[in-house]
Amino acid sequence: QSALTQPASVSGSPGQSITISCTGxxxxxxxxxxxxxxxxxxxxxxxxxxxxxxxxxxxxxNRFSGSKSGNTASLTISxxxxxxxxxxxxxxxxxxxxHVLFGGGTKLTVL
Amino acid sequence: xxxxxxxxxxxxxxxxxLRLSCAASGxxxxxxxxxxxxxxxxxxxxxxxxxxxxxxxxxxxxxVKGRFTISRDNAKNSLYLQMNSLRAEDTAVYxxxxxxxxxxxxxxxxxxxxxxxx
Lengths: 111, 118
Fold this sequence. Notes:
The structure holds two protein chains of two kinds. By secondary structure, chain A is mostly beta strands. Chain A is built from no helices and nine strands. The N and C termini of chain B lie far apart (40 Å).
């Protein structure tokens, strides 16, 4: 199976909201509510920000939210802050043979 | 504090072998499944392998199946990845990551760089 599809880049001004999409297929995103999102700053390890489509881990700002419709999951960041500038990756359980797929990543620029 | 620390990366020739380690602390390692995830330079994340808490269940990505072996030693709070028949396309930062139900990766190490080149 191919990687999940994300836009290469998105941008927004401080205080604005942005949404990053993650498109899969009926075999992954569309079949399971097991989508997670990771934030990665340059040179750092990824950090979990959303799991099970829309749940936030303890300590993650409530400015981060997730949703899913059909084969497409979305990450929304509201009230953009400079510290949100990073790469974001979606991830989905796929099936018993592929197991896990990541998206190609989206670079968020805060203007 | 939960901590995962990878080691064992380095430069290896194509066809060579390398063994990565991941030392865990700050949590009950023996209760958690674990994974290896890699990231080629300037590229995205790629899941590599999964091992259950008791080592009874193991999965591999097709790209490494038959060449890589994941293992763990719960007495030593350590996770391993034995990598054989290495190829240039295996060049990446390798992260160990703890696994929770719902296939989410809660905690990540800082990564160790593996470079396969002649």
